[in-house]
Amino acid sequence: MTAPRPSPSASSVNATALRPSPIDLVLLTGLAILLSAFSLPGIFAGLAAALLYALLRHTAGRLAFASVCVSLAFCLGVSEAVLRLGVSNPSYYRPDEVLAQFAGDGGRSHYAPNRRLDFAMPFGDLYVLSDRTARDIVEPRNVTFVTDALGYRDAIGPKDRAYVLVGDSFALGSGTTQDRILGDTLRRAHGIDIYTAAFPGDPTDYARTVAWLKANTRLVGERNVVALLFEGNDFTCPDTAPPPPSIWEWRWRPVTRLETYRLFYGLTRVAFGSGELNRAVLVRDIGGKNVGFLQQYIAVTRREKGCDWSLVAQALAAMRPHLGLVALAPTKYRVYGDWLEPGARLPQAQWRFVEATAQAMGVPALDLAPALRKRAAELLPQGRYVFWRDDTHWNADGMDAAAEAIAAALKR
C-alpha cells in the first residue's frame, strides 16, 4: 500500500502564491513605465514598482496590484489628453517647446503646422540654467510664433522662394517674436526672399532638412541654401561636451516625449533645482546691467584647437550642391569678450574650420562675430544689447545686425 504524500507546508504554499507569474511581470513592467512617465528615473521607477508589487501582492493580492496599474494608466491618459488638447503645459517657458514635434532617428523634426501661438515668455534659458536664481537678468517678453503647412516657422509658407535658411535655434529665432526673426528681417529690411526651415539640432539635421525639402518641395535649388552654424553647440569636442547622463538618470526615450513627463520633469527642476548653479551660468555687469553667459559656451569660445569635426564637414558636403553661403553665429561670450576680458584675443578654432571647409568646397563663408561686436558697441551706451540678457540667443537687435551682414554677403 502506497503511503500518502505529505501535504505542502503553509510556507511553501505562500511562496508559490507570491512567485511572479507572466501576468505579474507584465504588470510590473507596465508600472515601472508608468512611474517613469511621471519623471521618475528608470532605475528608481523599477525599484518603486518592485517594492509596490511586493507590498500589495503580500497584503492585498494580485487584483489590488492590477488596480493600481490600471488607475495610474488612467491618470496618465487623462493628463496627456488635458495637456495636449486643452491646457498648455505650464512647465514650458518658450513657445517653440509647445509646438515642437520631435521625430525618431533619421526622421524630420518640425513644429505643429499652420499654427499661430501668442506666448508670454517669462524668461530665457540662462535663467532656467541658473536654477531660477539669477533674477536680475530676467527679460520677460511677448513672442508670436507662426508656422506654415510644412511645420516650419515661416509666416508666408512654402511657395517658390529665392533662398532657404537652415540651422538651429538661432536661425529659428528662439525667444524673439515672429516679425523680428532672421528670415523675416532679411525679407522685410533687405529684400531677401528667404524661407526659414530651422529646428534645433546639429549640422547633420540641417543636411537632412535640405534633403527632405529637395525631395518634397521646389524650395531647394542650386546655390540657394544659407546654412547658419552656431559655434556654441555645433562643434562638439570631448572637453566641452555635456557629460552623458549617469545610469541613475537614465530614462526610456519614448517616455520623455510625453507631455506629462515634461510637466513633472519641469516641476521637479523647479522644486529641487538642477544642481548646476554657478557651474552653468556666469553673471557679469555689462554696461550697467547684469548679463548671463553659459559656462559651457565660454569654454567653447576659449578653445585653442579643434577636434574631430568630420560630421560637420560631411553635413556641409552633403549640402554642397545647394549651398550659397555658410554663416557662423558666435557665442554671446565672444561678442562681449572685450568687456569681459579687455585686451584678450580669443581663439577662433570654429571659424578657422568653417572658413577652410567652405573654401575647399568653393562656397562663401561668413563670420558674423565682427558685425555683432560692432552693433553691440554701438548699442551699449543706449542700454541695449544684441543678445537677451537672460538667454544664449540673439534678440531683435542681434537679428538686425546678423541680417545686415548676411544680406550684404548674398548680394555680392
Structure description:
- It contains 18 helices and eleven strands.
- The chain is of the alpha/beta class and 412 residues long.
- It has two domains: 74 residues, no CATH class; 317 residues, SGNH hydrolase (Rossmann fold).
**Count of helical segments?**
18
Question: Which strand-content bin applies to the residues?
Answer: 5-15%
- Across the major sheet, the strand order is 6-5-7-10-11
Gross CATH architecture of the largest domain: 3-Layer(aba) Sandwich
Radius of gyration of CA atoms, rounded to a whole number: 26 Å
Which oligomeric state applies? single chain
Helix % is 40-55%
Low-confidence stretches: none
Number of domain units: 2
* CATH superfamily caption of the largest domain: SGNH hydrolase
Mean pLDDT rating: 88
Largest sheet: 5 strands, parallel
Question: How many strands?
Answer: 11
Structural class: alpha/beta
CATH class of the largest domain: Alpha Beta
Q: Secondary-structure element sequence? A: HHHHHEEEHEEHHEHEHHEEHHEHHHEHH
- Distance, first to last CA: 109 Å
CATH fold assignment of the largest domain: Rossmann fold
Shape by Cα distribution: globular
